[in-house]
Amino acid sequence: MSTSLPPLVAVPADVRDFQNYRWHASPDTYLKALARVAGVVPVIVPAMTSEFDIAAILDRVDGVLTTGSASNVHPARYGAEPSPSYEPFDPDRDDLTDRLIAESLNRGLPLLAICRGHQELNVAFGGTLETEIQEFDGRMDHRAITHEDQRERYATRHEVAITPGGLLASIVGPGPIRVNSLHRQAIDRLGDGLRVEASAPDGTVEAVSVAGAKSFALGVQWHPEFWAETDGPSAAIFEAFGEACRGYRDRRG
Hints:
It is a single chain. The chain is an alpha/beta fold. It is 29% helix and 23% strand. It has one domain: 3-Layer(aba) Sandwich (Rossmann fold), CATH 3.40.50.880. The strands form three sheets. Strands 4-1-5-6-13-12-11-8-9 form a nine-stranded mixed beta sheet, with helices on both faces. A hairpin with a 6-residue loop joins strand 12 (205-210) and strand 13. Helix 1 crosses helix 7 and helix 3 crosses helix 4. The N and C termini lie close together (6 Å). The model has no long low-confidence stretch (mean pLDDT 91).
């Protein structure tokens, strides 16, 4: 395979039912950040794991990005009871991302996990999640504000402290940095084998990496994709991911 070709990055689809059709789709903010900033070609993978072998996809791509979503990881995956407060769910996406995360790490494929993807990464390592964290004593309200302008909803609103000597510090510097962390669910018990890379002022885990990973493996709770073309730290994350994908492509030839 010629190294002049841009890397391919697998992006798991969310499942949505609309006008009597079942759709498999991904928000274009992630796809544009991959194409414009990371310099890779995004490939949306349908959440249909019973219809094809995941290996057939991963044999052909150079990285995996797991996106945020309106849905949450099903509580059964981390030992909690389902509740309306945890909804909505997308079990087909859960099945897909669980396999993509496990196999990408096994192969040493670069992995960037954002928002829901960050939570999926924690669950994949045996960690748990907590929901409606804004209702806990001493916790901030991390939810998006109600506003018709997406730029206002995704504006950076608080700082995160960067763990010294970690993967994220090597990408964005010592920090702190301001982020647009939009969520009501967060990491509770950290998964075994994960390292905290950034934390909010209220202690919320905002970024993790995989200890001993064969390649780039980073999860962030905020949304660097939204401002990747204009915000320095956001751009740096996607640029570093893109470089890792090019390195993987070149090594596999």
